[in-house]
Each structure stands twice: as structure tokens, then as C-alpha cells.
Write a structure and sequence with these properties.
The complex is a heterotetramer of chains A (431), B (272), C (296) and D (349). Chain A has 431 residues and is of the alpha+beta class. Chain A has a single domain (44-423), classed as Cytochrome-c3 Hydrogenase, chain B (Orthogonal Bundle), CATH 1.10.645. Chain A is 45% helix and 17% strand. Chain A has helices at residues 44-47, 53-61, 68-83, 89-114, 116-119, 126-131, 133-154, 174-199, 242-245, 270-277, 283-291, 304-328, 378-397, 402-415, and strands at 4-9, 19-26, 29-37, 163-164, 167-168, 211-216, 227-230, 247-250, 257-260, 266-267, 345-353, 356-364, 370-376. In chain A, the strands form five sheets. Chain A has a three-stranded antiparallel beta sheet, with helices on one face. A three-stranded mixed beta sheet of chain A has the order 7-6-10. Chain B has two domains: 9-162, NADH:ubiquinone oxidoreductase-like, 20kDa subunit (Rossmann fold, 3-Layer(aba) Sandwich), CATH 3.40.50.700; 167-256, no CATH class. Chain B has helices at 20-25, 30-36, 67-79, 87-92, 104-112, 144-155, 167-173, 198-201, 220-225, 232-240, 245-251; strands at 9-14, 40-44, 57-61, 82-86, 135-137. Chain C starts with 19 loop residues before the first strand and ends in a 9-residue tail after the last helix. Chain C folds into two domains: 12-107, Beta Barrel (Elongation Factor Tu (Ef-tu), domain 3); 114-287, Nucleotide-binding domain of ferredoxin-NADP reductase (FNR) module (Rossmann fold, 3-Layer(aba) Sandwich). By secondary structure, chain C is an alpha/beta fold. Chain C has a seven-stranded mixed beta sheet with strand order 10-9-8-7-11-12-15, sandwiched between helices. A six-stranded antiparallel beta sheet of chain C has the order 4-3-6-1-2-5. Chain C has a two-stranded antiparallel ribbon with strand order 13-14. Chain D is α+β, with helices and mostly antiparallel strands and 349 residues long. Chain D has two domains: 7-67 and 88-205, no CATH class; 215-253 and 275-348, no CATH class. Chain D is built from twelve helices and twelve strands. Classes of the chains: A alpha+beta (431), B alpha/beta (272), C alpha/beta (296), D alpha+beta (349). At the C-D interface, β4, β13 and α8 of C face β4, α2, α3, α7 and β11 of D. The structure holds flavin-adenine dinucleotide and iron/sulfur cluster (3 copies). Flavin-adenine dinucleotide sits between chains C (53, 62, 64-67, 69, 81-83, 85-90, 129, 132-133, 245-246, 248, 270) and D (283, 285-287). Flavin-adenine dinucleotide (FAD) sits between chains C (53, 62, 64-67, 69, 81-83, 85-90, 129, 132-133, 245-246, 248, 270) and D (283, 285-287).
Chain lengths: 431, 272, 296, 349
């Protein structure tokens, strides 16, 4: 008997933004599979033109409501590079703190609300409100802790306020920062409970070695700053040269563009960072990895979610150290932003967003007005790798029912925690 | 006395936006659980797999930027008794409308080069430009206390108009220092409040994300800042912000481009 | 103010913004309005003068000023007639018997001049929902009919189906003690009564300008035309009374919303002598907006 | 009470005095904004050093300590029948460091709110507080001398005039005298009085803005009218943002709204400060706006402060603090407008 399965998922649920899965499977072999982004394009790269850099950096965070701090930081770094602005250590520490908040809240959103229901065999978190209210509360608590870490630094997580080129419009209070430390302790406990919850779950078994790309920093597990590293190479590359290393290409069925470097596809995100920078994780995070059975290196895409849990522990432990460093350093009013002068120039900002490496690039005229803008988001970089994983995975599950195949493919998509609501993704290569 | 109807069914939908509004709603923790206990959530793609075509209250986030969005929002409108525009994109079109400054073909080309042939895009419009909206929750992102207020208004059958007072009022109620005193230019005097003046509380100027108040005096800054006889505070503002009249007026449109989308300019391609 | 004595206890019963509970006794749907009859918990009367208003709270919705539309001569309860305009008025309209509301008042020092009207001819003019405050006065005069001279009432509604207190007004038409004129702006097929705006019947009425007091309530535009007609009939400005609407929050001259030049409509009104209003530019600007006078 | 002699409190003793008070009751006074160094607001002092005696003018006047910017009037349940619960605080506190103009602002609200029926909450909160005034140095927006508040002491319990080392203390009430017993003071000598007098002279000399006619005249000018061109010209610039009202120590208009709990079990009624400059201030439900034109609202602010309330209470409802001009993002300056009104009236005459 020949079996023919046509899988089509219109608007995969529980992901950020709109994407469709289509797969054609005949007699257990995969004829075609793809994940296409069908998000309405928003044209940030076009309409940022003409705006002053102060507006540009505020507008840039509006690219994405989940990784607002990442987009903001990438935009600030690019703008500061273009305007030749140096920032103080305090500003850098504060941004890193806000950043940890975002990574935590974004990961928690994914772990509990987006991917989580698959682990507990429910369609969404809402049935759990009655089944396991304490777990839902814990999820919300952790998510809020992330928000509040960003908030104590920048007034809000979506979309951060006080962060501007050069520094902050707001003078931070040691008491407020200090007060977060109790919350962090509580959060670390909640993470231990999270780890216990996740120890019991069964993840689909798929192993496929690929190229892992992330930022890397000599002194720390890279989120806010660093250079571009590929697991296929020894030497990192400066973010300024991102166009040389990350080659984008278009496909005709998607509004997103695909990316490659040393291989036809690469992976970026929590698992890539874990693989590339494992040694720099905090001790607690390493223990968490052990408790969760995540060994280094790991080539199982479904474990991306587990790597996120490990990173949550890292972020909270590191946030605690950052607060100590800030408070012990004595917080200065720092109105560095007032010294920022308009000038012509261009610059690149690269950060590790929760979902992977993110680039912003701007060019400004003498009045500080934007001449051109470009962004490369992590999900666009992951798409080729996601499809390669799908191709590797379908034969494994080809005998299953259509529902199971569909569900497993959706889970695979979710494991990447794709974030496509931003829909800014394309390099104009001919420029 | 509050006379309840049966548990209304609630659905969340999104169009072109950053999805930050519906996500920040999750920040409400206990309050969200309290609010949701009065309703039944039947569709919320972002956080649940179930879908439903039957709902009473639809929260719609995002701007209408494609032909198929128009059809989709119309069908949502037909089904929902109550339609809420959630956030700036849905209510006043936020940054999305900035692309309307160019013909769609040009915008597509700017971003996608020649490879943008398959892209379906029309001038961005807020939801209320396409279908009637019962409640607007403005802001980029929405302010959670206001979301809560509107939710409670819906549950208790009350109407809700976005506050028609400028942000300055909330600055004063919070005893926040006016950023003009620091020499910055602020859009607060012409922008609707409801955000609890959060940007100014954190030392930044209001960016105008909630749209203009009714009868906003958008001519005032141009009339003020170019005067010779300014008093010390405003003199400092004028010195630090050598803006042209055009630049001042442009500031009002960053979130709130009220210029009419060019009707003749339609989707650059229909095949999507 | 004399130096306040420190730490004295506050007399809570005198706190103006705290409403007293009242129970909804009956409700009735009127055309484009709801009639609500209320009583205090202890059964005591409201003790109001015709023309006064109460601040009605529907808890969770807010508070709104509403005229008392019943007469103090019928003290078992008091009644409101409310048009759904916004959240509070809609909530009042949604009340059912047994529900509770909060009441502050009665408020307003400027009421209909029932004493001054004694032994005089009385002419009342109501436009639309303006019938609500006047109904209390009509009931009052009917209940004390011997104290007053000729009694004339003109009532204009938009369409026949907008006529408030239909049965009662029908009775008034029959009532020999009362010259009642009812008119509609837009008649329907069944309407056999008068047609035209409220000033039309007014033109026909002959009054004794020396011995008449007139009072009116209705939309702001109406006042100007009524005043012109009455002045034409040689009725002096001191004997024309208007009941005004403004935005009230407190009802006792503190919140500032209802200020009309130096007057607080809530406290000094809501019923004013036309002669007094004429001195106030902010009243004049409403009636003759094209003129921009700005004296106080 | 008979006027007691003035005392002097040296700076070092003053800190101890403050600490002694703070041990017994909260002290609210001017303190530097933690997030905006160099700017001040009234707030509870955590330590005696938080007191910033050299503060200029705060954005929001100290009236907020008696009628909070947003305050809960009472809460209610949504049961049948509803239960109401009043919130009253009767614990005493000290309001420290109020400039003469702001004392005058408190006095203005005492007048307005004590009109029967009295605003009990205000009165109750006023009774909780002991007021300690403090003399000041003017900035370029202050014009207290033009409305006669530069030496105002009403209402206060103690009044401090800064001296080289410490303060000259005037005792204005028995409660003030009782409070001062906690301090180590000495009798003020002639030199001390002279120093304080010198302070007041310098302060008056430092006032820049001047009305071109006495303040009483402004009421007459407003009463006569014919000033529409000035109103319209001012309104062209005005945003109707309300900052002039919401920062004014003598403004007392408010709004009341209900809010309910997310579980819909009950709620509360709140009062917030309001402003007559806002578009919807006089809008009624039928859609009519009784001051729909911006210039009408501008005129109303003036008439209320310098005519209606002036006539009603026999004092201008302006303390010369200059807050409205300082807060105005359209640079509309009260004294400038006054002088244009005066000029317009003179031209008319
Ligand atoms: C002394 C006095 C006596 C009164 N007596 C009665 C009476 O007997 N019966 C009666 O029915 N009414 C009476 N009223 C009127 C009544 O008080 C109002 O209708 C009521 O306050 C409305 O309150 P609300 O909360 O329902 O509406 P609100 O929510 O306060 O107001 C909603 C209204 O706000 C206005 N609004 C908001 N946005 C806009 C906009 N964009 N454009 C235009 N308008 C807008 C609208 O008019 C809208 O209907 C009286 C008023 C006074 C002062
Ligand atoms: S900071 Fe902006 S919003 Fe606030 S008072 Fe000043 S101008 Fe108004
Ligand atoms: S502060 Fe200035 S701009 Fe704002 S309402 Fe007052 S006068 Fe107008
Ligand atoms: S009107 Fe202006 S100067 Fe006068 S008291 Fe009020 S804020 Fe101060």
C-alpha cells in the first residue's frame, strides 16, 4: 500500500509570528518539506530612513515585542559605532542586566507557554491553570522576574525606555537594584523546580550535527557583546564583517531570507551558544545542564529548549553578580547620553538575542538622520537549518499517523523558538 | 449593580505588529488569572493550539497591511460581538504607517530588491479604518492597568474612550519632573495619556505612541520655540534642540501618521 | 480659616462625597429613558424641593447628577427619569427592583421658585428629557393646586414615540386644572396632536405678563428661543427661570466643573433666573455663540 | 496666643531637632529627586540629611500631602446591599520647609474647602499636620511680591529664616511652641533679627517679574472685559495641557472615578486633580462643551484666579510661586499675560 501524506499547518500556533509548515511524504520518503514565513512584512529597513538616531533606536525595539531589549541594544550598539560614542562601564553593566532579564523572560515564555504544553500533553497553558495552578504561577513569576530585571534598568521590558545612545536617561537607584537580589534568589529556586519538572519529560530523539554560530567573548558567556564564532572555525570574526561571513539567499516561497556560512545551513540560539561557549557558563548553570542530562557538545535540536533552561540559571546567577558590581562600584548619575553628537557614519551592532545572533546596521548623515538600515534576525538564519532538520526527521517518523507527524513537526519548529513577528530580515546584497 | 452575562468567549488575533502587546498582558500574573476566570479563552495563536470560529470578544493586535488582512479582519468583525483594537498598531497604526510615505512598489524594492515580487502589501491602516471598533486600547505597548480597566469595562458593559488628556496630566499626578526642565522636547502636551507617563518617569521624553489628543495644538511648538523672548527654561530647550519647523511636525507622525494612504496605490502583487 | 485643632475626630456623617444607600423599588421603561423609583433604607423621605437633583452612584460605574422627577408631596419614594448617555446613566437604566444605588443630596440651592409662584400664573416649558425635573414641579403644583393661578405647561418631544410619561401627560391633557400643550418635532402617521418645535404652542398662549412666572428645562439651544418669545410677551427677565445642565463631579461647588463665570451651577442652581444668567458671559456664549463677548 | 519671642536654632542643633521629631512622627519635606539630582520634590524624609533646605521650587506644591494627587475616597463591595468603607488616616505628621507662597497656597485651599459643606477630608488631613515654614530665595519665575505673599506666615506653626549658622525661628502657634521644645534654641538677639530682615530684603530685591498695575486692578480689568484678542493670542500657543493648573498650589478642581477589582467583588472611588484647561473639562453627556474653545479656557483660568475667587475670598488665587509659568511647555508666562491684559485695558481706556 502506498501512503501519501500531505502535511499542511497553516499558522503554526504557539510561536512568535506567523509561519506555515508544508510537507509531502510518499511511501515514507520525504518529497518536500518547508517552513515558510508568512508574516506580514513591516518594512522597518525602509521607514527608519530619515529619522533621527534617537527615534531610530526607540523605533528599533518595536521590531519585536519579545526581544525588544535585544533589538534596542543592537540598534544602540550600531548607532554608537556610527556616531563614535563610547559608553561607560556602568552603562555596559546595566545593559547586560536588562539583557539577562530579557533572555530569562523570553526563554520562560518558550519553555512554559509555547513549547511546554507539548511536554504536558495539553493544547495550551490554560488547562494547566486548573490542573497545576502552582506551576502556572511559577511560570508567570519567572517571566515577571525577567521583565522586572529589564524594568529596573530601562523602565519597561517591551519596549525599553531609558536606554539611549550613550547611556541612560534615568539614574538608577542602588536600593532598587539591590531589591532584585531577593527576587533572583526566589527565581533560582523556581528554576530548580522547573528543572525537576522537566527531568521527567521525553523529548523526541533527533540528532544531527550541524554548524553552530554564536557570539563569543573572551571574558564571559556572550549575550550583549562579542565576536562571531562558528563551531567550524577556530578564530572568531569581528561583527563589522558580518556580511562577509553570513551569506543570505532568497527562496521563492517565503518572505524570509535564508543564511549560510561554512555549510549550506547553520544553527544559532541557545544550543549554539551552549555548544560554543559552554566553558563560560556559571557553575549553577553547568550543574543544571548535568541535572537535565544535557551534555556538551549536544547535537539534538529538540534540546534547544533544555539549553534555554540552563541559560536561565546562568542569567540569574550572572545578574546577581552584575548587581553587586553595579552597587559596589557606586552608581553615578551618568548623563553620558547628553554628550552624544550627531555626525555622519555607519556602524554594525551584533548581540545574542534569546533566539540567536542578531545584527543591526545603520548609516547616518551629518544631522544624525538615518540613511539606510539593515537587520538580520536569528530566525532567518535558522530557517535553512530547521528545514534540514525536518528532512532528517521525517524519515524517522514517516510510519506514524498524519496527526503525529504533524504534531512532531510542529514541535520541531517550536524547539527553535522561532520569532518571526518582526519580519525584518533581508540584506540587500547588491548594495 | 453588575448584571453578568454568561461567560463570554474571548479570542486574540494579530496582524502586522511586534506582538509585544499580547505578550505584555502575560505580565499581569494573578490579575490576568482573575480576569480570565470571568471568560473562556477560545483562541490565542501565540500561546494556545486550539482555534475557534465562535467568540464574543475579539482582541486584535496589529495593523492591516495586506489585502488578505482586510478579509480576515472583516470576518472577525462579523463573528465578534465586541471588537477591541489592542495596542498602537491596531489603534493608530504605529510605525507601520510610516511606509505609506512611499508608493508600495518602492518600499518593497527598498527592502527586498528585485526579489520582492511575491510580496503582498498595501498601505498600512489601523483596524478601525477597516471595520468598526468597539474599544481601543492604545499605547506601544499597551499599559497593563489600562488593559485591565478596559477588560473590566467590557465585562461590566461599560464603554471606554481612550483618555483625551495629555500625558502632562499624568506626569503631574506622578510628580514627575518635566523633561523640558532638562532641555528636552517632549510630545506629552499633545499626546493622549493612559500610559501613566512611564517614559517621562524614566527620564525620557514622550514619543507620542498613544496618538494625538483631540484638538491638539500641534502648531504650538513651532510658535513657541522660534520666539526671541523665551524665558530661561524654554530658552534652554530651544538652544539644545535646534529643530526646524518641519522636524517638529515630523515628530508628531512617528506613531501616528495621519496622512491618508494613497488609495490608488494597491498591493504591489496579488499572487500572495 | 481659623487654625484647625489638631487631631480632632472627623464627623463621618458629614462627608459630602459619601453616598447613602437607597433601594430600587420599581423601574419602568420610558421612551429613550428609564424611570426609576427609589427609597432610603429607613423609609425616610428625600425632602427635596422641586428642581433639586441628587448625585446617583452605581457602584463600579460612577456617579451622575440626576434631577428628582417626583414631587415632595409624594414622600414615600423619589423618582428619577434617566436617559442613557454614558456609563453611569446606562447603568442606572439597567437597574432592576431590589438593586442598590448610592444617593447624595438633594443638592442645589437654586430650585424652582414654588413660593414666589404662589398665587401667580405659572408657565412651564419642557424640551425632551427636560421634562424630568419639571414633572416633579407639575405634580407639586397639582397637589397644591389652590395656591396657584393659571397653570400652563408646554412639552415638546422629538417624535411621538419619545414622549415621556405618556399616560400621565394624557391625563394632564384631560385635567381641567391645567392647560397642557404637547407637541412633537417630527410626527408619525398616527400622531394627531400638535406638530412643531416647543416654541410654536408658546406663541399661541396669552399670558398676563404682570402676574406670570415661567420656568423651562431642555437642551441649551432651546433657551434662547424661549427667552425671545417670553420677552416678546413682555414677561420680565426676573420672572423667567431656566434649569441648566453642566458637568458635575461633586455637586456642592468644590470640583469646579460646573462653574459658569462666578456661579457654580450645582450649588447656586441648577435653576437660575434668566436675569442673572444674562449678566454672565459664559451663559450668553452658549445661547449666542457667534458673539464673542468676554466680560464677566 | 500672644506673640512669643523669636528663637535661634544653630545648624547642628537643627539636625538633632529634626531627628527628635522624626523619632515621633513622619516628616515630609523637600528632598532631592533620587532620579534627577538638582531637582526637588516633597516627600517623606528617611533621614534628617534628606531635608534639602536650599531647594528652589518643587514641580507639585505641598498641597499633595493633604489631598493626594490620586486618592481613594472610599471602597465599596458589589454585594447587595453594597458595604462602604471609608479610609481615614488620623496619624500626625510634620510638613517641613514650606515657602511663604506655598503656605499661602495651603491657606487658599483652607478657604475654598472650608466653605460649607466643608471638604472634610482636606480638613481632617490639615489637622494631622504641623507646618514648619522656611524662607527662600527667588528664581527668575517667582513674583510673590506682586501678590503680597513674600512675607506670608499663614498658616504655620513655626517659621524658619535661614541664617549663617542655623535658623531664626518664629513661633506662630502653641503647637509650634510645643514642637520647638524638642530643640535646643536661644533667644534671638537684635543682630539675629537684623540678619533675618536682611534675608527678606535680599529676597524681595531678587524678584524679577513685575505686574504693570497693582493686582487689585487685574480683577477690574477682567470684569470690564474686551480682552478677547489677548486670550486668543495666548490660546494660539497654549496646548491645553493643564500643567499650569496641576502644578498650581491654589487650584482645587478634581475628578472622581470608580474602579473595580479584577475579581469584580468590589472597588473604590478615587479622586484625582483635574484642570479647567483640558478640552473635556466642561463637556456634558449630550456632547455640548461649555468651554470648547481654547481661548475660553485660557480666559477662565484667569478669571477664576484673579476675579471670581479674588472677589469671593478677598485675595488673589495666586501665590506668585511661578509654577504655572515654569511648567508651561508653551512658555506662557503669567506675568507676561497679565501685563498684556493691562496694556490692552489701557489702550481701551
Ligand atoms: C442638574 C442636572 C440634572 C440632570 N438631570 C437629569 C435627568 O433627570 N435625567 C437624565 O437623563 N439626565 C440628567 N442629567 C444629565 C446627566 O447627568 C448626564 O447625562 C450624565 O451625567 C451622564 O453621565 P454618564 O456617566 O452616563 O455619562 P458619561 O460617561 O459621564 O459621559 C459620557 C458622555 O461623555 C461625552 N463624550 C465623551 N466623549 C465624547 C466625544 N468624543 N464627543 C462628545 N461627547 C463625548 C458624551 O456626551 C457621552 O455621552 C442632569 C444633569 C444635571 C447637571
Ligand atoms: S515631561 Fe512631557 S508629558 Fe510630562 S509634563 Fe513635561 S511636557 Fe508634559
Ligand atoms: S501649562 Fe501652558 S500650555 Fe499647558 S494649559 Fe497651561 S497655559 Fe496652556
Ligand atoms: S497661578 Fe501660577 S504663580 Fe499663581 S499660584 Fe498658581 S502656579 Fe503659582
Amino acid at each position: 500500500m502506498t501512503t501519501h501524506n500531505s502535511i499542511a499547518v497553516h499558522h503554526v500556533t504557539r510561536i512568535e509570528g506567523h509561519g506555515d509548515i508544508t510537507a509531502e511524504i510518499k511511501d515514507g520518503t520525504l518529497e518536500q518539506v518547508r517552513f515558510s514565513v508568512v508574516e506580514a512584512p513591516r518594512f522597518f529597513e525602509a521607514f527608519l530612513r530619515g529619522h533621527h538616531h534617537h527615534e531610530v533606536t526607540h523605533m528599533a525595539s518595536r521590531i519585536c515585542g519579545i526581544c525588544a531589549v535585544s533589538h534596542k541594544c543592537a540598534a544602540l550598539k550600531a548607532t554608537e559605532a556610527a556616531l563614535g560614542v563610547d559608553i561607560s562601564d556602568q552603562t555596559r553593566l546595566l545593559r547586560r542586566l536588562a539583557y539577562h532579564g530579557e533572555v530569562l523572560s523570553s526563554h520562560i515564555l518558550h519553555i512554559y507557554f509555547l513549547a511546554g504544553p507539548d511536554f504536558f500533553d495539553v493544547p495550551s497553558v490554560f488547562p494547566l491553570v486548573d490542573q497545576d495552578r502552582e506551576m502556572v504561577r511559577r511560570a508567570m513569576r519567572l517571566k515577571n522576574l525577567g521583565y522586572d530585571l529589564s524594568k529596573v534598568v530601562a523602565g519597561r521590558h517591551t519596549h525599553p525606555i531609558a536606554m539611549v545612545a550613550g547611556g541612560f536617561t534615568f539614574v538608577h537607584q542602588a536600593e532598587n537594584l539591590e531589591a532584585m537580589k531577593d527576587r533572583i534568589a526566589e527565581g533560582l529556586n523556581d528554576l530548580q523546580d522547573t528543572i525537576r519538572t522537566l527531568q521527567g519529560i521525553d523529548l523526541p530523539d533527533l540528532e544531527r550535527e550541524t554548524e553552530y554560530v554564536s557570539l563569543t567573548h573572551p571574558d564571559r558567556y556572550a549575550f550583549y557583546d562579542g565576536e562571531i564564532l562558528s563551531s567550524d572555525r577556530d578564530e572568531p570574526v569581528s561583527p563589522d564583517r558580518y556580511r562577509e561571513v553570513i551569506e543570505e539567499y532568497a527562496v521563492d516561497y517565503s518572505t524570509a531570507k535564508y543564511a549560510r556560512w561554512n555549510r549550506p545551513e547553520y544553527m544559532t540560539g541557545a544550543l549554539a551558544r551552549f555548544n560554543n561557549n559552554y566553558g563560560q557558563l556559571t557553575d549553577g548553570a553547568k550543574t543544571a545542564a548535568e541535572d537535565l542530562g544535557l551534555t556538551h557538545p549536544c547535537h539534538k535540536p529538540f534540546t534547544n529548549t533544555i539549553a534555554q533552561v540552563v541559560e536561565c540559571v546562568h542569567c540569574l546567577e550572572d545578574a546577581r553578580d552584575l548587581i553587586d558590581a553595579l552597587v559596589n562600584g557606586g552608581i553615578r548619575p551618568g548623563r553620558e547620553h547628553e554628550n552624544v553628537k550627531d555626525r555622519a557614519g555607519s556602524g554594525v551592532g551584533a548581540v545574542e538575542a534569546p533566539r540567536g545572533i542578531l545584527f543591526h546596521e545603520y548609516e547616518y548623515d551629518e544631522e544624525g538622520k538615518c540613511l539606510s538600515a539593515n537587520m538580520v534576525i536569528p530566525t532567518a538564519q535558522n530557517l535553512a537549518n530547521l528545514e534540514a532538520d525536518m528532512r532528517a526527521y521525517v524519515p524517522v517518523i514517516a510510519e506514524e499517523s498524519k496527526e503525529t507527524i504533524t504534531h512532531r513537526l510542529e514541535m520541531l519548529v517550536r524547539a527553535y523558538d522561532p520569532c518571526i513577528s518582526c519580519s525584518t530580515h533581508v540584506i540587500d546584497l547588491r548594495k | 449593580m453588575i448584571h453578568f452575562k454568561k461567560k463570554p468567549r474571548v479570542a486574540f488575533f494579530d496582524f502586522a505588529c511586534c506582538e509585544g502587546c499580547q505578550l505584555s498582558v502575560l505580565e499581569m500574573e494573578e490579575k490576568l488569572l482573575d480576569l480570565l476566570s470571568h471568560v473562556e479563552v477560545v483562541e490565542w495563536r501565540e500561546v494556545m493550539s486550539e482555534k475557534s470560529d465562535e467568540y464574543d470578544i475579539a482582541f486584535c493586535e496589529g495593523s492591516i497591511t495586506r489585502k488578505r488582512d482586510v478579509e480576515r479582519i472583516q470576518s472577525i468583525r462579523e463573528r465578534a460581538e465586541t471588537l477591541v483594537s489592542l495596542g498602537a498598531c491596531a489603534s493608530i497604526s504605529c510605525h507601520n504607517a510610516l511606509k505609506n510615505r512611499w508608493p508600495m512598489k518602492e518600499v518593497v524594492e527598498m527592502v527586498y530588491g528585485d526579489s520582492g515580487g511575491h510580496i503582498d502589501t498595501i498601505p498600512a491602516r489601523p483596524v478601525s479604518d477597516v471595520v468598526p471598533v468597539d474599544y481601543q486600547i492604545r499605547g506601544c505597548p499597551v499599559s497593563l492597568p489600562e488593559f485591565e480597566t478596559v477588560f473590566k469595562h467590557i465585562l461590566t458593559g461599560q464603554s471606554y474612550d481612550p483618555p483625551n488628556q495629555p500625558v502632562c496630566v499624568e506626569c503631574k499626578l506622578n510628580d514627575t519632573l518635566c523633561v523640558y526642565e532638562k532641555g528636552m522636547v517632549c510630545l506629552g502636551p499633545v499626546t493622549r495619556c493612559g500610559c501613566n507617563a512611564v517614559c517621562t518617569a524614566y527620564g525620557d521624553a514622550c514619543q507620542g505612541c498613544r496618538g494625538l489628543i483631540d484638538e491638539a495644538n500641534t502648531e504650538a511648538p513651532a510658535r513657541v520655540l522660534f520666539r526671541e523672548d523665551l524665558h530661561p527654561i524654554m530658552a534652554e530647550v530651544a538652544r539644545k534642540n535646534p529643530l526646524t519647523r518641519k522636524e517638529i511636525l515630523a515628530k508628531f507622525t512617528v506613531y501616528n501618521d495621519t496622512s491618508e494612504p494613497d488609495e490608488e496605490e494597491e498591493s504591489s502583487d496579488d499572487n500572495a | 480659616m481659623a487654625e484647625p485643632a489638631k487631631n480632632q475626630a472627623v464627623d463621618r456623617t458629614r462627608i459630602f462625597y459619601v453616598p447613602e444607600r437607597a433601594r430600587v423599588m420599581t423601574t419602568r421603561q420610558e421612551p429613550s429613558a428609564t424611570f426609576v423609583e427609589l427609597g432610603f433604607e429607613d423609609g425616610r423621605p428625600l425632602n427635596h424641593h422641586p428642581g433639586q437633583f441628587v448625585q446617583v452612584s452605581v457602584f463600579g460605574y460612577g456617579e451622575a447628577p440626576i434631577s428628582v422627577c417626583s414631587s415632595p408631596t409624594r414622600p414615600e419614594s423619589f423618582a428619577l427619569c434617566v436617559q442613557s448617555m454614558g456609563n453611569v446613566s446606562r447603568a442606572i437604566a439597567d437597574l432592576t427592583p431590589g438593586d442598590w444605588v448610592g444617593i447624595r443630596g438633594p443638592y442645589g440651592r437654586g430650585c424652582f421658585p414654588i413660593d414666589r409662584m404662589k398665587n401667580k400664573d405659572v408657565l412651564l416649558i419642557a424640551g425632551g428629557i427636560g421634562m424630568a425635573p419639571l414633572r416633579g414641579l407639575i405634580q407639586f403644583i397639582c397637589d397644591n393646586r389652590d395656591d396657584y393661578g393659571r397653570f400652563m405647561v408646554v412639552y415638546g418631544a422629538k417624535t411621538p414615540s419619545d414622549i415621556l410619561f405618556r399616560e400621565e401627560t394624557e391625563q394632564w391633557t384631560e385635567n381641567p386644572d391645567l392647560d397642557f400643550y404637547r407637541t412633537v418635532d417630527e410626527p408619525d402617521d398616527e400622531w394627531e396632536g400638535r406638530t412643531g418645535v416647543v416654541t410654536e404652542p408658546l406663541k399661541e398662549i396669552d399670558i398676563d405678563p404682570e402676574n406670570t412666572i415661567a420656568a423651562a428645562c431642555g437642551p441649551p439651544v432651546m433657551f434662547r428661543f424661549i427667552a425671545m418669545d417670553l420677552l416678546k410677551k413682555k414677561l420680565p427677565e426676573e420672572r423667567i427661570y431656566f434649569s441648566l445642565e453642566r458637568r458635575f463631579k461633586c455637586g456642592i461647588g468644590k470640583c469646579g466643573h460646573c462653574q459658569l463665570n462666578d456661579l457654580y451651577v450645582c450649588q447656586d442652581g441648577p435653576v437660575f433666573r434668566y436675569a442673572d444668567l444674562l449678566k454672565r458671559t459664559e451663559a450668553g456664549e452658549v445661547w449666542a455663540p457667534e458673539k464673542d463677548q468676554d466680560t464677566a | 496666643m500672644t506673640a512669643p519671642e523669636n528663637r535661634v536654632i544653630p545648624a547642628s542643633n537643627f539636625t538633632r531637632f529634626l531627628e527628635a521629631i522624626m523619632a515621633e512622627q513622619p516628616v515630609i519635606g523637600p528632598r532631592e529627586r533620587p532620579d534627577q539630582p538638582g531637582f526637588y520634590r516633597f516627600g517623606r524624609l528617611a533621614r534628617a540629611e534628606d531635608f534639602a533646605p536650599d531647594y528652589g521650587t518643587t514641580t507639585v506644591p505641598p498641597k499633595k500631602t493633604f489631598a493626594a494627587l490620586r486618592e481613594k475616597l472610599f471602597s465599596f463591595t458589589l454585594d447587595s446591599p453594597p458595604e462602604l468603607d471609608l479610609h481615614f488616616d488620623s496619624s500626625p505628621f510634620v510638613l517641613l520647609g514650606i515657602h511663604p507662597c506655598d503656605l499661602s497656597g495651603i491657606d487658599a485651599l483652607d478657604h475654598a474647602y472650608s466653605q460649607p459643606p466643608a471638604e472634610v477630608r482636606w480638613t481632617a488631613n490639615r489637622r494631622r499636620a504641623s507646618l514648619i515654614g522656611l524662607d527662600c530665595r527667588p528664581d527668575s519665575y517667582c513674583f510673590c511680591t506682586q501678590v503680597g505673599t513674600e512675607s506670608n506666615r499663614n498658616p504655620c506653626d513655626l517659621f524658619l529664616t535661614p541664617m549663617e549658622d542655623g535658623y531664626l525661628v518664629e513661633v506662630h502657634s502653641d503647637a509650634g511652641a510645643a514642637l520647638l521644645e524638642k530643640a535646643d534654641t536661644r533667644k534671638a538677639g537684635e543682630e539675629d533679627e537684623a540678619a533675618a530682615e536682611q534675608w527678606r530684603r535680599e529676597k524681595a530685591a531678587g524678584i524679577v517679574p513685575e505686574f504693570d498695575a497693582p493686582v487689585e486692578k487685574i480683577a477690574d480689568i477682567l470684569e470690564v472685559g474686551g480682552l478677547t484678542p489677548v486670550w486668543k493670542e495666548t490660546a494660539d500657543r497654549c496646548y491645553s495641557c493643564g500643567s499650569c493648573n496641576t502644578t498650581c498650589p491654589t487650584c482645587f478642581c478634581f475628578d472622581m472615578v470608580d474602579d473595580i477589582e479584577p475579581d469584580l467583588s468590589g472597588g473604590a472611588r478615587y479622586r484625582t486633580w483635574d484642570s479647567c484647561q483640558l478640552l473635556d473639562f466642561a463637556l456634558v453627556a449630550s456632547g455640548h462643551n461649555f468651554r470648547g474653545e481654547r481661548w475660553q479656557r485660557v480666559r477662565h483660568r484667569w478669571q477664576r484666579k484673579f476675579l471670581y475667587l479674588y472677589r469671593q475670598f478677598d485675595r488673589p488665587y495666586c501665590t506668585g510661586c511661578g509654577r504655572c509659568s515654569r511648567a508651561c511647555t508653551a512658555d506662557i508666562n503669567l506675568v507676561d499675560v497679565a501685563n498684556r491684559l493691562i496694556a490692552a485695558a489701557q489702550k481701551e481706556a
